[in-house]
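Researcher: Please translate sequence to structure tokens.
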Amino acid sequence: MNEHFNDIFVTTGCPTQQQLLDYVQGKLTAEEQHEVEMHLADCELCSEAIEGLAAIKDKKQIPVWLRDMRWQLLKKLHIRYRSRRKTDNYIYLTVIILGILFLLLALFWGFHFATRK
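Model: Translation complete:
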């Protein structure tokens, strides 16, 4: 299921999630930090993400929280997907039952009118 919900930063020119976390924690080299800062000047989404990450006091907990949030989101999406499939299955079952009932009704009427003469 994880292959359906990839990291949103992978297909863009934005820094990876890990690079943003390392930037906030001060773990980047001077060159990497400069690249991130150049990107932040042009990207409002990443600038706001950095602003939000910088406001968190316990920065070592951020990866744990992100992992937990991603896991909970995937669980909710999986539950929603399963309930949608279940609803689709009920619709198919209803159509099949109605088809069988109409077929039986047609056979009954055909038999009834054929034996009436």
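Researcher: Any highlights?
Model: Residues 100 and 106 are 10 Å apart (CA to CA).
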